[in-house]
Specification:
Length: 719
């Protein structure tokens, strides 16, 4: 639904199931209820999706004419398999009774490439043979993801008649973009009856003997160069899925702690990241989140990588390569593109192809460009990969040029945004809701808008890129960038500080009036280092007050503000990544106890979420006794930068810094929260070398012990 020139996920009915299950591989993902079904109910988000289009909007299993009894379901820790246990209700058939819970029905589902695989194992634990019919009901609507989100279209393409054979049903849709989208359902064994909307499989079940049914659902588009159908059998595909996960996991260092619940959070977060990371032509890139943002986002990809760079430096190269390849080279008003600007998001799907939404390649992000520079500098320090930095140096120079020439719209020394596209985002910082930037009285400011944290990102980017310039022998550029960074810091302090708030203004509007709003944006200024020490300490105390800290994390907007709403998207909710970056900033300014308190808050919040998976955001309602956090109805889960939050929190707490240019691993004033007595990090890579370390918490400090070392790595502990 388009409101106020921005896009929202429409909510007009409650969840069909508040604990949906998610599977993903590459460009295909599925959202299911706990029974393993796809139900066209509730929010309507359930389905099997491929390249921005829903290829299956209904897939429901019945036994005879009834729903099976639900017993349990879970996603395996590596996210590779979704398993559901069901049983039969009491069934009367031909004068005979099959007592309830006589049959055990186990469904196992996973996605490999563009195909959903399902195996149904049914076993009779009764004393006599029984004959039952499993009924599958299905449909494919081929709606664009933005239609699922609530956008109304004036016209759609043509749904073609399904093609039915003895074992398969082929759904087809010819889009207005002239792409033929197809969904093939294939049943093994051959159903008793098969039509365009259902399949009936008859089973003779002998006591203690299992029967297997396999269902494959393949998604396909006519312009793709591959055979159709091209799916493997269930076992082959399952083996490939498991092998691929193991290979991906090897690229990350391993973390074990003395707290099994914390290990659960770590392991789920890593599995979610590995699921969201998609191989692009330029390398691995973490897609933002399922279901609404399962696509590359520049800001999200960079922030996720900054959270995880210490564990998996290869991810940094993939993200930088992808964004460099998609950096804007020309002006495009409808895409909010200018030369040198880094991508905000890219979308596939019929509506993007036709320009019905502006997001096929969209650049309406004010911070992605400076964050790109920040990541480039951090990547070099983490890897000493000079060759790669030299390859993307033209992109770095172009990004620097954008900051000075196009980012500073009115020439006042600050980077600002003003939407140029007629259909793009009104607000272009990380809080990009139409109402997320406002004045003290709740009114909306006129543009261009200079956000406080964006100035911090620019400051940090210029300061760190200055070092890269010196490495490449560009001394004059090094000197210029350092000077510009210091000038920006002084100007920022003068123009953004609001004495009566003890904080930085949320933003400056087009008239250079301060948006005197208490918002978490000021906390991100601590992460970038632009804040002066005395101001940082004031902001830290403010963020830990009841106005901001809920007991779980930091609200995006203080509870005292006129637009505060704890169950809104950006005006009072808690975003785990935001809290993690604020904690990292607090650590850098010596506010360690505050940071540890935030660390503990998010850990304890994770214990209440399904699968211990932190969602994109949750409600900003204050902690109430033994109750858990309040859910946000359409939050993505998993979400990449929420999954990465735990790794940044841990890195910040133990003071871990890696300088591959000097083969150094540094633990500076390491601390551990009281729920962690011991942390072991294995296979921490530094260039071609690696080490294993153990951290142990004592009453007044943390001890660091070298367990294993391969190569010339130097370990330094500063206490």
């Amino acid at each position: 639904m388009q409101i106020g020139d921005t896009y929202y996920v429409r909510v007009c009915s409650p969840f069909a199931d508040d604990r949906t299950r998610v599977l993903k591989h590459k460009e295909t993902f599925g959202v299911f209820d706990r029974r393993g079904d796809i139900q066209p109910l509730g929010l309507g988000d359930q389905g099997l999706y491929y390249r921005g289009t829903r290829h299956l909007n209904e897939s429901v299993l019945f036994i005879e004419k009834s729903y099976p009894l639900f017993l349990s379901s879970t996603i395996r820790e590596d996210n590779a398999m979704f398993t559901i246990d069901l049983s039969n209700p009491e069934i009367e058939k031909e004068g005979k009774i099959i007592r309830q819970q006589t049959l055990l029905i186990t469904r196992s589902k996973f996605i490999w490439e563009s195909c959903l695989y399902e195996e149904i194992c049914i076993c009779n634990y009764g004393e006599v043979p029984v004959q039952v019919i499993l009924l599958f009901k299905f449909n494919a609507d081929f709606v664009d993801l933005f239609e699922v989100r609530g956008t109304k279209r004036k016209k759609r393409g043509q749904l073609l008649d399904p093609v039915v054979t003895e074992q398969s049903v082929l759904f087809q849709y010819l889009g207005l973009d002239n792409i033929l989208r197809q969904t093939l359902l294939f049943f093994d064994p051959k159903p008793l009856n098969l039509c365009a909307t259902s399949a009936a499989v008859s089973l003779e079940l002998i006591p203690r003997k299992e029967k297997l049914i396999h269902l494959s659902v393949e998604c396909f588009q006519s312009h793709e160069k591959r055979a159709f159908p091209s799916f493997l059998n269930y076992k082959e595909a399952s083996n490939k899925s498991i092998e691929a996960y193991k290979e991906s996991e090897k690229k990350w260092c391993k973390i074990w702690t003395s707290n099994s619940q914390f290990n659960g959070w770590i392991n789920r977060s890593l599995s979610d990241l590995l699921m969201l990371i998609t191989e692009t032509p330029q390398g691995p890139f973490p897609y933002a989140g399922v279901p609404w943002f399962c696509t590359p986002f520049g800001r999200d990809g960079i922030i996720t990588t900054l959270e995880c760079l210490w564990l998996a430096p290869e991810l940094g190269k993939g993200v930088l390569s992808f964004l460099a390849a998609n950096q804007a080279k020309d002006f495009d008003i409808e895409a909010d593109a200018e030369p040198g600007k880094i991508l905000h998001e890219t979308r596939e799907g019929e509506m993007a192809n036709l320009g019905e939404i502006p997001f096929r390649k969209y650049y309406g992000s004010i911070d992605a460009t400076c964050l790109f520079l920040l990541l480039a500098a951090e990547y070099y320090q983490r890897t000493a990969d000079r060759k790669f930095i030299e390859e993307i140096w033209p992109n770095i120079e172009l990004a620097l040029l954008w900051i000075d020439r196009y980012g500073d719209i009115d020439g006042d020394g600050f980077v600002e945004y003003r939407r140029r596209s007629s259909r793009g985002l009104t607000n272009q910082g990380w809080k990009d809701s139409f109402d997320s930037v406002f004045q003290k009285d709740g009114s909306f400011p006129v543009g261009p808008i200079a956000l406080c944290e964006v100035q911090g990102f620019v400051f940090a980017a210029k300061k760190k890129i200055a070092y890269l310039a010196s490495v490449l022998g560009q001394i004059s550029l090094h000197d210029r960038l350092l000077k510009e960074a210091e000038i920006l810091k002084e100007k920022f302090e003068k123009e953004f500080w609001v004495e009566e708030l003890s904080s930085y203004a949320l933003a400056l509007d087009g008239r250079k009036e301060k948006c005197k709003v208490l918002a978490s944006n000021a906390g991100l200024c601590l992460y970038t280092g632009i804040a002066k020490q005395d101001k940082a300490e004031l902001i830290g105390k403010l963020l830990m007050s009841d106005k901001f800290f809920t007991g779980w994390g930091i609200r995006t907007v203080a509870s005292t503000e006129v637009r505060y709403n704890p169950i809104s998207y950006h005006n009072g909710s808690v975003w785990p990544f935001d809290t993690a970056f604020i904690a990292a900033g607090m650590m850098s300014y010596g506010m360690k106890e505050m940071a540890i308190k935030l660390f503990k808050g998010l850990f304890e919040a994770s214990l209440f979420f399904d699968l211990q998976r932190l969602p994109e955001l949750f409600g900003g309602i204050a902690r109430r006794g033994q109750e858990g956090p309040t859910l946000y109805p359409v939050a993505c889960a998993p979400h990449a930068w929420s999954s990465g939050a735990v790794f940044l929190l841990l890195q910040s707490a133990i003071g871990l810094k890696i300088d591959a240019t000097k083969n150094l691993v540094i633990f500076e004033e390491p601390r551990l929260p009281d729920f962690l007595d011991k942390v072991i990090i294995q296979d921490l890579k530094v260039g071609d070398w690696r080490i294993d370390v153990e951290l142990s918490r004592y009453p007044h400090n943390v001890g660091v012990r070298l367990l294993k070392k391969e190569g010339e790595v130097k370990l330094i502990v500063i206490d």
